[in-house]
Amino acid sequence: MSKELEEGIELKLDWSKLKKVADTNPDVVPVAVQNADTREVILVAYANELALKHSLACGNATFWSTSRRELWEKGASSGETFELLEVRVNCEQNSLLYIVRPRRGGMCHTKQLSGEPRSGCYYRKLDPGSMTLINTQP
Fold first, then answer.
1. Domain for residue 44, yes or no?
2. Residue 20, SS3?
3. Measuring CA to CA, how many Å separate 20 from each of 15, 16, 39, 69, 104?
4. What is the three-class DSSP state of 19?
């Protein structure tokens, strides 16, 4: 990911993300990830059957990386791993909710100015007047 995409103020939504996922990773469902303690939504990812089974077996939130097309254990490289406490399934059985707890305190691979991981991936809000992003966790 580019620093400008992850830290910048320009809105660059990937409107074709779901088409790309469907074209290259047809056997996945979206997974919303929520912090068990704060109830904050941390991120949205995807899981296939392998990722779900791996999550349940090892107790770590694991996903299917739709860009790399491989199993992605959250935090394997950043160290910000999530203990998987509960998995919920929606009424139509086409999405999951992982309820997690951070093992080290951080939730996002991006960092605040202090160098600490952010508490979640939704750290910018959209200014409707300028259509720019405002960082809520500097």
1. yes
2. helix
3. 10, 6, 29, 12, 33
4. helix
